[in-house]
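One thing: could you explain this record?
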Amino acid sequence: MTGTKSVSDTDTDTGADTESGSVGIRIEGVRFGYPERPVLRGVDMTVRPGELTALIGLNGCGKSTLLRLAAGLLRPDEGRVLLGGDDLARLSRRATARRVALLHQSAPAVPGMTVGHLVRQGRYAARGPLGMLRGGDDPVVRRALRDVGVEGWADRDVDALSGGERQRVRLAMALAQDTRVLLLDEPTTYLDLHHQLDVLRTVVRLREERGLTVVMVLHDLAHAARFAERIVALRDGRVVADGPPREVVTPELLADVLKVAGRVGRDPEGGWPVCYPDHPLPGIEYENHIH
């Protein structure tokens, strides 16, 4: 479909893949929320080593929260998150950051910061604050810059970049953590269509070249159906659909998960599902949504 690595449907191992070094994720009975505001209501999900998975659902369904739990930034109220077989609750934040990188939806601008300096921030977990700030050549940073095609931008100010350029640099910063798991929270938000496709194609390529396990939150079901080999749909803090795009993306999914009436066809060349949304369905109470 997209040239991504094929993973057997029967392979449920979440340890390290001995050939690629990829690491899997297992989420077991995870509940998380705030007083009187539950977000995740018992999530079970396994991401196999080397797999590219897209999380979809309405705002407030728990997608970003699930990603932060998988990155070790939050601790579940119940259940556990395993990374390569290790319980994240038993690891420090820095130890977790050596294993999994999370590209947040947005980040505050830092005036005067160059591209090279920003990407070096990704070395914090490996080198510590002093090692990260020391000058000199770092082959991991150099490779991250090269892999996303921005090696010539090291001395440019981040503030001077376009939105698409800045997202490529932030992706390089995540790669500089040098982990086997990459989590992306809406990586195409605020980007025009050209840069959306550019970022997603770059992620697919990097996943193949580096043997990464990738989970990304996407709002655009069309992008999820084209670029991911697996889609997990959340509704009200629960997994309600999980499988390959050709099986999961249906008119029923549009109505039940995204609250949209529509039709689903097939791309004549690639064969992936193509959605034709017609109109929104009633019953959405936005004030109850939790990000």
Q: What stands out?
A: The first helix runs from residue 63 to 70. The two ends are 31 Å apart (CA to CA).
